[in-house]
Amino acid sequence: MTVQHDLETSSWLAFPFEVNGINYVSKVKPNSSMSKRISAVPEKIFISLNVDCVRELIGNVSRDEAIAKLYEINKSASEAVIEIV
Which is deepest, 4, 9, 39, 62, by most CB within 10 Å? Predict the structure, then answer.
């Protein structure tokens, strides 16, 4: 996996999804305020929100361009990130 941030996320909740042929995973810190809100939403809806987010913020770009954009998006993250698998 190519990591696009400085956080240790191996034990975080993972929600894989695909956009434009690139495999992503949304990771959320367990027991965080974010995970509590996400647990109230059906997983398919959360995945759909992630797909929409990637389409809007990253767009239809190459894998390398997506990695560069994720570094910028994830740089201030503390409870949730999006990674490329």
Answer: 4
User: Burial letters for 48-59: b for 16+ Cβ neighbours within 10 Å, e otherwise?
Assistant: eebbeebeeebe
> Could you tell me which residue, 5 or 68, shows the higher pLDDT?
68
Average per-residue pLDDT in the chain? 92
One DSSP character per residue, 31-47 reads TSHHHHHHHTS-HHHHH
Give the chain's largest Cα–Cα span.
34
User: Is residue 16 a contact partner of residue 44, using CB atoms and an 8 Å limit?
Assistant: no
* Residue 73 confidence (pLDDT) above 80: yes
* Residue 54: strand, helix, or coil: helix
d(CA 20, CA 60): 6
Q: Could you tell me the two tokens for 19? A: 């956009």
Which residue, 20, 66, 1, is CA-closest to 12? 1
